[in-house]
């Protein structure tokens, strides 16, 4: 198995980074679209991809723990390293907490979860009115919903800062950070 080096990132790192990143960006866009346009027909897709991205994010965390943090491509101050580390931690934690809070909202709210039509968690239907769902734990469902809502904004900000940082490394610093993330070797 290939691990990251200073010169080049492993195929596993690249695959997990780009797959999780692109799905998360799509999830954020679909979430904003659903709320802004009341387009709740997107909901089942949003929930399905959210469930899948949880496992991809867990795989990414496991890989990061096994592989370690990448070394910086350039020589930067402790402040710059600290800011980068905070943004990376926010990204990692948010990619875990967003799907977990979404699950809390849906499942504990009694709505269950189907992933592309496959029932993973059943809806909690009322015995008196089988057309109505009942929350399993209303309070925790609301906590999950609130977390999901505000974490979405935090994650949007972190993704934008991450992209801005990558562009800064590439355009201003010319240090190879973005080239490594595109699978190329640097010196």
Gist of the model:
The radius of gyration is 19 Å and the shape is elongated.
Mean pLDDT: 95
Distance between the termini: 22 Å
- Gross morphology: elongated
Secondary-structure-based class equals mainly alpha
Name the beta content range: under 5%
Largest sheet: 2 strands, antiparallel
Q: Can you list the strand order of the major beta sheet?
A: 1-2
User: What portion of residues is helical?
Assistant: 55-70%
The low-confidence runs, each spanning 5 or more residues with pLDDT under 50, are none
Q: How many E strands?
A: 2
Radius of gyration: 19 Å
Order of helices and strands: HHHEEHH
Number of helices, where a helix is a run of at least 4 consecutive DSSP H or I residues: 5
Topology:
Elements: H1 11-37, H2 43-67, H3 78-108, E1 113-115, E2 118-121, H4 138-173, H5 177-181
Antiparallel strand pairs: 1-2
Notes on the protein architecture:
This protein is mainly alpha-helical and 187 residues long. It has five helices and two strands. It has helices spanning 11-37, 43-67, 78-108, 138-173, 177-181; strands at 113-115, 118-121. A two-stranded antiparallel ribbon has the order 1-2. α2 crosses α3. It is elongated, with a radius of gyration of 19 Å. The two termini are 22 Å apart.
Relevant terms:
mainly alpha, single chain
């Amino acid at each position: 198995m290939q691990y990251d080096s200073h010169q080049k990132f492993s195929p596993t790192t690249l695959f997990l980074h780009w797959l999780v990143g692109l799905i998360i960006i799509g999830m954020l866009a679909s979430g904003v679209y659903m709320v802004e346009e009341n387009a709740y027909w997107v909901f089942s897709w949003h929930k399905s991809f959210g469930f899948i991205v949880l496992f991809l994010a867990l795989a990414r965390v496991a890989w990061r723990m096994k592989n370690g943090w990448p070394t910086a491509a350039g020589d930067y101050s402790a402040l710059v390293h600290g800011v980068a580390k905070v943004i990376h931690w926010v990204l990692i934690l948010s990619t875990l907490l967003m799907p977990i809070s979404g699950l809390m909202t849906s499942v504990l709210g009694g709505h269950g979860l189907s992933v592309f039509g496959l029932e993973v968690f059943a809806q909690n239907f009322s015995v008196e009115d089988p057309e109505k769902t009942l929350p399993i734990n209303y309070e925790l469902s609301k906590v999950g919903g609130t977390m999901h809502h505000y974490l979405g904004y935090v994650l949007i900000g972190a993704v934008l800062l991450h992209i801005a940082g990558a562009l800064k490394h590439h355009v201003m610093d010319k240090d190879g950070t973005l080239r490594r993330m595109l699978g190329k070797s640097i010196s």
